[in-house]
Amino acid sequence: MDRALLIGVSDYRFTKGPHAVPGKLPAVEKNLPVLREALVRAGVFTDGEITSLPSPDFAEAAQELQRVAREARGLLLVYFAGHGAIPSGGDELYLQLRDAHVLAGEHTVFNGAVSFSDLMGTVLVTSRADRIVVILDCCFAGNAARVWEHFEDKRRVGLLMSVQANHRIDAGDPGTPTPFTENLAELLGEEDGTTVSRLATRLRERMAEQKRRTMRKEAWEPQLRADAGADVQLGEGPQLPVLAPDGPGPSGADPGPGPRPRLPVWVAASWRRPRALAAKWSRAWRRKLSRTDRGGGKRSSRRILLRPALPVLLALGLLGVGLYLLLGPFSRDDTHCAPPLELRVLTDPDLEKTFRTAAAAYLTSDANTTDAGCRRTGITVYSAGSSDVVDALRRRTDAWQEPEGAEVNPQRDIGPQPDVWIPASRAEADRVLEEQDTDAVAELEPEESPLAHSPVVLAVPERLAPEALNDITGRPLTEMIDALTGHADDAAVRRPDPEFTDSGLLATVGLYGDPASVAQGERMVRQQGPPSPTAGDLLCDLPDDDAVDDRTAALVPEFLLVSGVDCEDNTRTPRWALYPADVPGMDPVFVRVRWDDADGDDDSGDDETDRDAAAAAFRDWLAGAGGREVLARQGFRDPGDGELFAPGRKPDGVKFAPSPLDESAGRDEMEQALSAYQAYGGPGRVLFLLDSSGSMADLWQGPSGGPGLLRQTLGGLGAEDEYGVWAVADTGDGPYETLLGFGRHGRKDAEEAVDERARVRDASADPHAALLAAFDEMEDRGDDGRPQMVVHITDGQHGEYLTGGRLREVLDRAGASEVPVTVAVLGSGGCDEGRPDQRIAEVSGGRCLDAGDDVGAALHDEIARIGTGDD
């Protein structure tokens, strides 16, 4: 029989204190009935075949998982929604049940949580189901993929994950199901029958259409893992495994054409193992005879009965062969294929979509297919902030290979150790090679020739284009911007984050021109709040406000104007490309990364020679006709002559062969531009407001308590930064007490001061008065261009202090001060739309962080943007 187990954990016992889970998840409570109804309506299961477990504890969930797995014979579906967590030093994913709590020290222990390894082991050992589908809707769901890959007996298991690895997600409106499950249920109801790979593809499309973002502000992309070619039918129709030759491989690529027919399991088995089946059935007959015969007749009876059995077995085997030969031209059985070697490809965030598309094409190409129809290589494509990647490959390779603690963990913050790195510029590889640690455990081998070229252009709105198009090429970027703003007083220019993507850093090279022009360049792209992480995000963010879109030029790689971006359905202002003479273009280059002692780093036993061959084959395909075709569709140019690969795809606003172009970046100019950007304005100033009122008593101790959280952030501040700490509690002498005076401090001295002086007061907090005083303090420090920030760490329980006229006064000051306020709310829901802390952060250009975020890591990142710390 078919069976489904639906686990949704919305209510947690331990939500306060240093070892608690982030908070309750009311949206998850809506998931189980919605998904159950969808599965029944789609004909995947009957109502009696589904077991729902709302907020079970660990023991109950484990017991039910084993029971349901034992009972399943056809299809087994296991669904989990709730909090997901990963330890600081590994890839394992923990699914947190109702009684979950965390013990953190030298090692992290997740009590009341089931590891994904244990879940996989349980279903594989316990269940005799023909097909198993596991669906995860939780933070870090994509981290389950690597666990899945290391199981040898995973051929019958399809894994659908709500989000890519190392990403947290928002549970959404408490009154509705979570975004992933809501879309999953709707898609199940749209067709009479579908497959898991089709669901994964449609889910990715839905999330892109809805402009869903993870908590890292990156595109929210559900993931799929299934054995090469194997898919599972859901809903009406034959409940048999089907083959999707163009289906998603390890990269989670789109499946292309629909599934093809596949031989029934018993036919395929009789073709593959006729002798094994004959032996099995003969043993069964012998066991039966031994139970029924008595005495001396036993031997002769067995001989008589077995004689007619052998022709039957032979006939069945021949029938299997005949059906295989008959149906062979219309189907393929890839179950004999060994799992392909997996290549991990790390790239720039703006290039991730391009190289995922390329990987999807390569996976099903002749170059990656054996004569037997098996895939030679699987490919996982992922991206991370460009500055983080360069720093990790320079100085953190040992921690990348073997993470030792929570503070430095590239596996968590970037992703798995890459076999291939494709930065957007060869200069990035040169930056690593120039300053890489002598004891680095990663060796880089960049190719000499780039794979393609794309200029970074000034994309001007159509309304401003007539004047701007007088000089499309040949002028410095700053001259082009001056001409644009001179033509229209309200014209503005934006660029993506120079620390996150190379397109932003390449644009910054042109903005600065020389070290004396840094301030002028930054004023030209000044905006409220932080820059968009990527060029794609920038082009998606602008149409959110028609007035902004109509007057704002964007510094983006040209290929995005050809290929479009994920939010193409948005009504947007058409843009024309200007080609600055001093802005280097994108030149993605293939870099092979070899790791010390990496032989046999996975369970398949592949050695480095095999991995070299796989990487070389992918490189040759990318540089050949297949790769050029994909890059042409994406809007890239020939790296040799600078002309478009596919001139027929040229939109009106793009030139076919603009000249002259600054085609490549140098190592030194990239390094200098980034250093100047990070140092712009001088050392930073940060004022911490630590809620010390009585309501904070349960949120005070441990690394995730108020003082512990503050200590974690100090690593983002350096010896030249100025900062102070106020304890916010009204004890009769005013709205705050100074724990650490404003000035420069050594980190150790600052931590000791906080440890000695910070304590919970038997008093309420007045954030209205404290925030107004904080704005006064920052204004008194002067407007000298130095970056500034106010950080408010609180439980969000403000009573009447942030309502009505008091809240309006704070909002007005926050908007006028130009000092961003970052609020860290130690509880759930504090940053919901319309809440006071969320509104203060938004109007000031800061961020609001609550239990839906990894508050410690996110707050450290915010401080690092302002400070000059070295970690």
Q: Could you walk me through the main structural features you see in this protein, from its secondary elements to its overall organization?
A:
This protein is α/β, with parallel strands linked by helices and 871 residues long. A six-stranded mixed sheet has the order 2-1-3-7-8-10, sandwiched between helices. Strand 7, helix 5 and strand 8 form a beta-alpha-beta unit. It is globular, with a radius of gyration of 30 Å. Mean pLDDT is 80; it is low at 237-335 and 600-606.
Helix content: 25-40%
Biggest sheet strand order reads 2-1-3-7-8-10
Distance between the termini: 55 Å
Whole-angstrom Rg: 30 Å
Instruction: Count helical runs.
Output: 31
Total count of strands? 27
Main pleated sheet: 6 strands, mixed
| Shape designation | globular
Structural class: alpha/beta
Mean pLDDT over the full residue set: 80
Low-pLDDT segments: 237-335, 600-606
% residues in beta strands: 15-25%
TL;DR of this structure?
It contains 31 helices and 27 strands.
